[in-house]
Amino acid sequence: MITDSIGNYLTKIRNAYMANHKVVDVPSSNIKKDMTKILKDQGYILNYKFIDNGNQGVIRIALKYDLLTKMPAIKKIKRISKPGLRNYTGMDNLPRVLNGLGIAIISTSKGVMTDKEARKVNVGGEVLCLVY
Q: What residues contact residue 117 under an 8 Å CB cut-off, 6+ apart?
């Protein structure tokens, strides 16, 4: 049984990049779907597809690499809030990743969004992960 499904999701993506895979499949959930949409919108992955297999479903993610250097689009993806130690922050203390070059994915009362969107909407929440 997996207790940290978001941590497992991030680890599968990280391991797929390290092994130079083109595609990775992860078990689906609503929060993982929202996180995947954010990664696509911010340009960290090429594309994604939700596959309904009758049970939980699967998210198939096409990973993005630089064409010339073959370097992955995601340099680091780090889990911040863990099941044993939740990390909540107010609107004033939202993290800035690499001075705005990276993103922090925040779970707020208005949905899952990036730190920049949370500042615009004026909400804080649980800091799920940092991506750059």
A: none
